[in-house]
Amino acid sequence: MKKENKLLSGADIFFECLKHEKVEYIFGYPGGSVLKLYEHLYDVDFLKHILVRHEQGAVHAAEGYAKASGKVGVVLVTSGPGATNTVTGIADAYMDSVPIVVFTGQVPSHLIGNDAFQEADIVGITRPITKHNFLVRDVKDLALTIRKAFFIASTGRPGPVVVDLPKDVIASNCEFEYPEDVDLRGYKPNYKGHSNQIKKAAEIISKAKKPLLYVGGGVIMSGGANELALFARENKLPVTMTLQGLGAFPGTDELSLGMLGMHGTYWANQAVNNCDVLVSLGARFDDRVTGKTDTFATGAYKIHVDIDPTCIDKNVVVDLPIVGDVKHILAEIASEMPRTPDTDDWLSQINEWRDECPLHYEDNDGRLRTEFVIEKISEKTKGNAVVITDVGQHQMWTAQYFKYNYPRSNITSGGLGTMGFSVPASIGASFAVKDRPIISISGDGGFQMNIQELITASYYKVPVKFFIINNNFLGMVRQWQELFHAEKYSFTDLSLSNPDFVKVGEAFNIESFSTDNPKDVDGLLEKAFSINDRPVLVEFKVVKEDMVFPMVPSGGSISDMIVKRLNPKRMI
Amino acid sequence: MKHTISILVENHFGSFDRVATMFSGKGFNIRSISIGETEIEDISRMTIVTQGDAQLIDQVVKQLNRLIDTIKVVDLSHAPRVERELALIKVNISKGSMEEIKNLCDIFRGNIVDITNRSMTIEVTGPPDKVDAAVNVLAPFGIKEMARSGIVALQRGEQTKIKKKQNIT
After folding, report:
1. Domain with B138 in it: what CATH number?
2. Is A277:A300 a contact under the CB 8 Å cutoff?
3. How many domains would you assign to chain B?
4. Number of H helices, E strands in chain B
5. Same domain flag for B27 and B75
6. Of the residues B79, B106, B128, which one is the last residue of a structural domain?
7. Is A55 part of the annotated catalytic residue set?
8. At what angle are helices A55-69 and A87-95 packed, to 10 degrees?
9. Residues B23, B56 share a domain
């Protein structure tokens, strides 16, 4: 144990701890309760503080950074409104298991509970949406608490941790002692899978006639993408991915079936429905994947590998659970395989489904469509980019049409479905990845939800390509209104209320372009990809009435899948 | 089916709230809850009685384990165990009923802990079904007020060891 005997202030200790945790960036916004920290920050040179324009933006930026890098994202905000503004971002990180530590200022200890100025019980508020949270009541606990926060956020199933820092704690002094190791008796994530279960899984997969790997974000978080590729290719196992799993296995590989679930491919969903062994790897049988659980992969023997025991048997009861780190377990299953299964018939059956109902969009009327734009971006980057999507139709189309080549290249708000995620998250990701293009794709609705962060992008000259898919509608809501809500397009038409996005971009000092012509797309992408020392914005004005297909209606079975517009005349 | 779940939690600020928040957030029901000190200074024991099918109880136990502040979670329902509850029952009394209530109290090995001209407070301790029975027989006299502690329970036999102090090396 290291011991340094001089007295340090809470603020010094705070930065000493961040130095030990190798923090490179803090996304933050100053305020009354954290002034002391900002006073010290002024002279800190081992990390960079990125000033956002809204605390929600700070959290999404930290998420983008964490997802792109695999490191812990760090946020620093003030008490009260500063803290409550982080709530959506924290909930988002909780749902998608993103390792972030959010430091919130708090009013001085003696005022807590007094309805003091800018006081909010952020520990109480964030209790159900954090992996854990802390209120530091004594400066002596500060170093250990920060150590614990980073440890909890980054180990096991990752997640957000909030550390609430009362103003007086930061200002008090104590001896600094950095705890190198941390041992929490109530928290012991299990990494090593049960060896008999692993053997059994290998045995069952090797005997399967129609096996299917169902891959979630856990594979990416555990760093298991290589193990997955080896295992799948060696045993000729088809792979379908959840929204968060995209990138875990190359989208161009013939064993990739693309995404499954509500807007998954026809063939992926057919494969799920007809497989005899379903191997879930770091996925959680979310309702957007399963639809009606009673009819989900009913004939299949289900193997579920996950580091979080609560995921097992939560939504779908499985036959063989293995709790542990999916990277190691995949490697072990692979080494235990007694023989490779014969999957040739199964793969040709899947290819028949692929031909039966391919992804399809209208491309002969000269109008611009999202699918076309996404395909062009995918071609242009050869899948070698970090793509940060927002929430809605463009998100699903990107999932369908962008062929991700690498893990950590697909960053999106999946669990919580937070509109306004993409703009700040892409800024965060741009600090983590320097050697690949950073592409932010938003709809016209979501783009406006954290539009203030454009100035952050512009000020720090981050090389983000902000692509706006503008259909002048809240497209996904519109789609549901058309399909399930009597075509009452209630408050989803933005055509009369959208701003001029080119002017918006220019106002934020970002070079901006716009088109509604498919013929312009190549040229504009060329232009956008030639700008690499600052952000650039391109608005694609697309048709408003398109819907994302295939679609399994909420709570439906695969057999309820809609593959095209039921009544093509019913367009607005 | 009712399940008695015993939980050892860190005895510090917010631990109880984390458990309660998890129950309400996940929509699990709580029939009774009690919390108190244990033989170890910084650990408290919570005893929660909840209800549900096997899959739900499995989730409850896993979700409890997932909380960072919970040290040990045991579903005692299938284990040999001792369960006790304490009730304070304030019943109406009259000249005619006093003797009868006293007899009933004796049958349940209850104690009379307070008495006025018009009411008597009886303390009954025992397994929850005994307390239920006592409440049932006292109900016809008119229960003015009642407080039940919720169940506390321990597994029979040898105790399982808990690590005493958090190791920070």
Report:
1. 3.30.70.1150
2. yes
3. 2
4. 4, 9
5. yes
6. B79
7. yes
8. 30
9. yes
Q: Are residues B87 and B121 in the same domain?
A: yes
CA distance A298 to B37: 48
Q: What are phi and psi of A208, to 5 degrees?
A: -70, 145
In which element (H, E) is residue B115 found?
strand B111-115
Query: Residue A430 — pLDDT band, cuts 50, 70, 90?
Result: very high
Say how far apart CA A435 and CA A406 lie, in whole Å.
13
Predicted confidence (pLDDT) at residue A288 exceeds the cutoff of 50: yes
Do A144 and B63 count as a contact with CB atoms less than 8 A apart? no
Cα distances (Å, whole numbers) of residue A334 to A185, A306, A344: 33, 16, 19
Distance CA A162, CA A104 (A): 7
CA A334, A338, A339, A343 torsion-angle sign: negative
Q: What share of chain A in percent tops pLDDT 90?
A: 94
Q: What is the pLDDT of residues B119-160, one digit of tens each?
A: 999 999 999 999 999 999 999 999 999 999 999 999 998 766
- Pair (B118, B92) in one structural domain: yes
- Yes or no, beta carbons of B13 and A185 under 8 Å apart: no
Domain extent at residue B43: 2-79
CA dihedral A168, A169, A175, A179 (to 10 degrees): -170
DSSP code at position A165:
E
Torsion A475-A477-A480-A486 (CA) sign:
negative
Under DSSP, the state recorded for A566 is S
Residues in chain B: 169
- Do residues A305 and A282 touch, judged by C-beta distance below 8 A? yes
Sequence-separated (6 or more) residues with CB below 8 Å from residue A140: A174
Check CB contact under 8 Å for A180 and B166. no
Q: How is residue A520 written in tokens?
A: 């312009």
* Residues contacting B136, CB < 8 A, separation 6+: none
CA A293 to chain centre: 24
Find the catalytic residue in A16, A118, A336, A545.
Answer: A118
Q: Looking at this predicted complex, what is its ipTM?
A: 0.91
C-alpha–C-alpha distance, residues A80 and A86, integer Å: 10
Domain identity same for B6 and B34: yes
In a domain, residue B24? The reply is: yes
- We report the CATH number of the domain holding residue B9 as 3.30.70.260
List the single residue in B63, B167, B168 with the smallest CB-CB distance to A144: B168
Instruction: Please check whether residues B51 and B29 belong to one and the same domain.
Output: yes
Instruction: Indicate the burial class of A3 (C-beta count within 10 angstroms; 0-12, 13-18, 19 or more).
Output: exposed
Q: Is residue B168 in a domain?
A: no
CA–CA distance, A206 with A334 (Å, rounded to integer): 10
> What are the chain A neighbours of B161 within 8 Å (beta carbons)?
none
In contact, A182 and A112? CB cutoff 8 Å: no
Give the residue from A434, A439, A421, A329 showing the smallest Cα distance to A377: A439
Classify residue B115: in a domain, yes or no. yes
**In-domain check, residue B111:** yes
**Residues B74 and B95 grouped into a single domain:** no
**From A476, A547, A551, A561, the catalytic residue:** A476
* Nearest in space to A412 (alpha carbons), one of A455, A441, A379, A378: A441
Is residue B51 domain-shared with residue B87, that is, in the same domain? Answer: no
Tokens, residue A319: 């036959």
Share of chain A above pLDDT 70, in %: 98
The DSSP string of A99-155 is: -EEEEEEE--GGGTTTT-TT---HHHHHGGGSSEEEE--SGGGHHHHHHHHHHHHHS
- Where does a domain end: B52, B79, B106? B79
Residues 92-151, chain A, touching B (beta carbon < 8 A): 123-124, 127-128, 131-132, 135, 137, 144
